[in-house]
Design a protein that fits this description.
Blueprint: H1 2-44, H2 46-70, H3 72-82, H4 86-116, H5 125-140, H6 142-157, H7 162-184, H8 194-218, H9 236-269, H10 272-308, H11 312-339, H12 341-346, H13 353-368, H14 370-385, H15 390-414, H16 418-447
Helix pairs in contact: 1-2, 1-7, 1-8, 1-10, 1-11, 2-4, 2-5, 2-6, 2-9, 2-10, 3-4, 3-6, 3-10, 4-5, 4-6, 4-9, 5-8, 6-8, 7-8, 9-10, 9-15, 9-16, 10-11, 10-13, 10-14, 11-13, 11-14, 13-16, 14-16, 15-16
Keywords: Antiport, Cell membrane, Ion transport, Membrane, Transmembrane, Transmembrane helix, Transport
GO molecular function, one term: antiporter activity
InterPro entries: MATE_fam, MATE_MdtK, MdtK-like
Length: 460
């Protein structure tokens, strides 16, 4: 064991240093939704919480294609850095911004379409009215969100993740302030109720996009990648490359997020109390999940950089280190969820005993699937570092839509287990993915030729 630790100590240390800022920055993506739910639940009650919470889930579902798709840019930047190719890094940055803009517009229109058909989701009239308007505003906010994520890929790929961290923390503070001011109506600002929360998220995400792009263009750390001669280089090939690698990765993320969004709809079929309880528990689980995605991103960057250097030993060690880190990391919230579930729920709602009781039981379920959730998302990151994009999409479809969702429906409705049955199905899907993704990674590593330095798209 001591020999193993000495062998992996440098890799573990480097992955931890890279992971921590990315973890916090990734956490900021979901914490905006958590902040919205916290303020809406505490200030406005259970029905507005159900409507806003469902819209946050639906918005995250639609945006997941862009969020997952753009994350491939960091791995490509890291590979280019391994080859010391500054011009390539510049082209990837500019191409990433173009892809972010197009995805923001396209998925924003999808979000508008989902809002139009909101009444088809089987929710109560009150939840439908609140949720539709909330979703329209969140759909617009996808454009600045994607621009921020695209620009952040340059920072992460070059191992400067603290920049996005600081901007994210400032945006979270701004979002909390705007939530309170716009929901309640403070000073000259009108009381907009639940829609004020969505507007606060739009303004905060706009700040994030503007701040990170301005910082990158003006800070000396990045000047080597913005030589005037690079601006003449065409980026059409890189746009196609990002789309070719990113869209399958985006749909991999989509299938997982869709599973949880559809689970929220199922919870809504059980009643407003069940839906509100589900949103509380899923908020907590999404916090730890997004933190695990930080380790996943760090693992992807470390794997891709090692691949760029044609160091297969380093590729394998980067993957193993990421898996061990997420195993230890996700074990901590698992213990907290299992032992402090009532206290955690009290942060969201206190004046509705039935919702709190259901939510507390679901938080216990969330504790059980923490390890599976962490391992599967790190497995996706490891495969992204190898530019493996097609087979992970198929694995996600199988694990979540063939196993997870059907089991959720059968247990929740046929066996009358309610929300608990829905969450057992989620656990089954996550566990299957947690088994298959690492197996795929180590199988591919054994197949890579030592002199492979070019980006490869693996197919089934």
């Amino acid at each position: 064991m001591k020999q193993w630790y000495q062998m992996y100590k440098p890799e573990l240390a480097d992955t931890i240093r890279l992971s921590i800022p990315i973890v916090i920055a990734q956490l900021g993506v979901v914490l905006m939704g958590v902040t919205d739910d916290l303020f809406v639940g505490r200030l406005l009650g259970a029905i507005p919480l159900a409507g806003a919470g469902l819209s946050v889930s639906l918005s995250f579902l639609v945006s997941s294609i862009g969020v997952g798709g753009l994350s491939v840019v960091a791995a490509l930047v890291s590979q280019a850095r391994g080859r010391n190719d500054a011009a390539e890094i510049n082209r990837l940055f500019r191409a990433g911004l173009w892809v972010a803009l197009w995805l923001g517009l396209a998925l924003g229109l999808v979000g508008v379409g989902v809002a139009y058909f909101y009444d088809q989701f089987g929710q109560t009239p009150e939840v439908t009215e609140i949720g539709r308007n909330f979703l329209l505003i969140l759909s617009l906010s996808n454009i600045p969100l994607f621009l921020f994520i695209a620009a952040r890929q340059l920072c992460d790929g070059l191992s400067y993740p603290r920049i996005a961290l600081i901007i994210t923390l400032l945006a979270l503070f701004l979002n909390a302030l705007l939530n309170y001011v716009l929901i309640k109506g403070v000073g000259p600002f009108p009381a907009l109720g639940v829609q004020g929360s969505a507007l606060g998220t739009l303004l905060s995400r706009s700040f994030m996009a503007a701040a990170i792009i301005l910082y990158i263009r003006r800070n000396r750390l990045f000047q080597a990648y913005f030589s005037p001669s690079f601006q003449k280089l065409r980026v059409s090939r890189h746009i196609r490359q990002i789309l070719q690698l990113g869209l399958p990765g985006g749909f991999t993320f989509f299938f997982e997020v869709a599973t949880f969004s559809l689970a929220a709809m199922m919870a809504g079929w059980l009643g407003t109390d069940q839906l509100a309880a589900h949103q509380i528990a899923i908020n907590m689980a999404s916090i730890t999940y997004m933190m695990a995605t930080g380790i996943s991103a760090a693992g992807s960057i470390r794997v891709s950089r090692a691949l760029g250097r044609s160091n297969l030993t380093a590729v394998r060690r980067a993957g193993v280190a990421a898996l061990w880190l997420v195993f230890v990391f996700m074990g901590l919230p698992a213990v907290v969820f299992l032992t402090a579930n009532d206290w955690l729920v009290s942060w969201y709602i206190r004046d509705h005993a039935e919702v709190a009781a259901i939510a507390a039981s679901l938080v216990i379920m969330a504790g059980f699937f923490q390890l599976s959730d962490g391992i599967q998302v790190v497995g996706i990151g490891m495969l992204r570092g190898l530019s493996d994009v097609n087979t992970p999409t198929i694995i996600s479809l199988f694990a979540y839509w063939i196993i997870g969702l059907p089991m959720s429906y059968v247990l929740g409705f046929w066996f009358n287990l309610g929300a608990i049955g829905i969450w057992i199905g989620l656990l089954a899907g996550l566990t299957m993915a947690a088994i298959l993704f690492p197996i795929r990674f180590f199988r591919l590593v054994r197949q890579i030729k030592p002199d492979a330095v070019e980006t490869t798209v693996y197919t089934p």
